[in-house]
Design goal:
By secondary structure, the protein is an alpha/beta fold. It has two domains: about 110 residues, Protein of unknown function (DUF3299) (OB fold (Dihydrolipoamide Acetyltransferase, E2P), Beta Barrel); about 325 residues, Metal-dependent hydrolases (TIM Barrel), CATH 3.20.20. Helix content is about 30%, strand content about 20%. The chain has 14 helices and 15 strands. The strands form four sheets. The chain has a five-stranded mixed beta barrel with strand order 1-2-3-5-4. A five-stranded parallel β-sheet has the order 6-7-10-11-12, with helices on both faces. The protein has a three-stranded parallel β-sheet with strand order 13-14-15. The longest helix is centred in the middle third of the chain and has 20 residues. About 5% of the residues have low confidence. The structure holds zinc ion (2 copies). The site of one zinc ion (ZN) has 6 residues, from loops.
């Protein structure tokens, strides 16, 4: 079978494991890699001269049957395909490889997308301005309970070129449990319980910011100043359950904890409205939910309708005077029961407010970072346009695996997006769109 560079990172490349395949590319590093019978084959010519390419999806390690002298560096090879999960090794190898005659430049160009960029160039692709709309990085879900140690946040952000993350405490954590394969409320909270929990989780977030040396974004000017060289965070809450129906607690969280991003609901149908994963009881948004949105608009807090039902979103869109965020989801046209994914009309209701939808890297939907970019991001862009899509990793909050587990992976995401979008569009998707919404919402 013939493999193209577009197949790498996708099931077709994995299925070829152990089979004889043909692939065409550019040879690199015959001298560096111990002679002409062992070298790297790349998607693009010359782009990584003098550096070892970082993107494992743009490289095949070749173990040739005999010494080779590639003309102009170009080669069409036949060999046995090996897919390896070995840490530190190349993912793809071509064993017992031999040259196939007849490669033309035209064939080669048709075979190669723009995949291979050296690390510094890829980091530049994001302008160091990338923003994650939704994260629990640093092990915040555990440290909010006083359990476990924090994990690094600032360093992987610097490595990947991520400038700001919206870091969320989880308001209903004490009462939600994994039941029947999904998160559900296990009981009603006791009066005062979720407010009391917020008085532990917000300080845990602030402690993490101090420990990681990360400034907290309080104003639009702070956000404009944030760069990957000095990673920053926005204080967020996933669920407004800690309000317990009392609007004055929103002012308190704004002042005391610098809350600037509030997701109305989570896994419990709360005082604000209905959620996607439980039967509706409020017909969407409650009167209190509408009051909270208006107060957020006035004070300068981003309103996030992730986890809310389509009814909630439609009512929130009618109430808000600022763009809405839906920070972590993805598109579906055939929704499963109790899915967190959204239909095209649900997505369009967010875009109509001028808002942004964060794409969620759930690996059962997107098995790798290329699928996350070219399926997750691109399909949503097809529905709502390139001005209304962003990145919502939910780092360390996913029940299963992530297609983007670390901020150090951001260059791979940027490179995969660049196969479908130009540099300006990629910058919008990776942070520009959220920055616009934040500046429209926060003073
Ligand atoms: Zn969530
Ligand atoms: Zn989350």
């Amino acid at each position: 079978m013939r493999l193209s560079w577009n197949d790498l990172g996708k099931p077709r490349a994995d299925k070829a494991n152990g089979k004889r395949v043909e692939i065409t590319g550019f040879a690199l590093g015959a001298n560096l890699w111990g002679g002409n019978d062992r070298f790297l084959l790349m998607a693009e010519p010359g782009c990584c001269q003098g550096c070892v390419p970082n993107n494992p999806l743009a490289v095949v390690e070749v173990l040739a049957r005999q010494q080779m002298k590639p003309a102009n560096g170009t080669l069409k090879l036949r060999g046995t395909w090996h897919v390896s999960s070995e840490a530190g090794g190349w993912r793809y190898q071509l064993h017992d490889a031999e040259a196939v005659k007849g490669v033309t430049r035209r064939m080669l160009m048709a075979a190669s997308p723009l995949f291979c960029l050296p690390v510094p160039a890829m980091a530049q692709a994001t302008d160091g301005m990338a923003v994650d709309l939704h994260s629990h990085a640093g092990n915040l879900l555990q440290t909010s309970f006083g359990r476990g140690a924090s994990s690094p946040v600032a360093e992987p952000m610097r490595q990947g070129g991520m400038s700001v993350i919206s870091l969320a405490v989880v308001s209903d954590s004490p009462i939600i449990k994994l039941t029947d394969g999904r998160l559900r409320p296990s009981r009603d909270p006791r009066p005062g319980e979720l407010y009391a929990f917020s008085q532990r989780s917000f300080p845990a977030l602030h402690a993490l910011a101090r420990e990681q040396g990360m400034p907290i974004v309080r104003t639009s000017a702070d956000l404009r100043a944030a760069r990957a060289g000095q990673p920053s965070l926005i204080v967020a809450s996933e669920g407004a359950d800690f309000l317990e129906g009392r609007i004055e607690r929103l002012d308190e969280a704004y002042e005391r904890w610098a809350l600037r991003h509030l997701q109305l609901t989570h896994y419990r149908p709360n005082e604000l409205g209905d959620i996607q994963t439980e039967p509706a009881v409020h017909d969407g948004l409650t009167t209190f939910g509408a009051e909270v949105i208006r107060r957020c608009n006035t004070m300068g807090i981003v309103v996030d309708v992730a986890h809310g039902t389509f009814e909630l979103v439609k009512k929130a869109a009618a109430v808000t005077t600022r763009p809405l965020v839906l920070s972590h989801t993805s598109l579906t046209t055939r929704p499963a029961a109790w899915t967190r994914r959204i239909l095209p009309d649900h997505a369009k209701a967010i875009a109509a407010t001028g808002g942004v939808i964060g794409i969620w890297p759930v690996s059962s939907y997107f098995p790798n970072i290329v699928a996350y970019a070219t399926d997750g991001f691109a399909r949503m862009v097809d529905i709502v346009g390139v001005d209304h899509v962003g990145l919502g990793t939910d780092q360390l909050g996913l029940v299963g695996a992530s297609a983007m587990p670390s901020y150090a992976d951001l260059p791979q995401l940027a490179a995969a997006l660049r196969t479908r979008f130009n540099a300006d569009e990629t910058a919008k998707l990776l942070g520009g769109n959220f920055r616009r919404v934040f500046e429209a919402s926060v003073r």
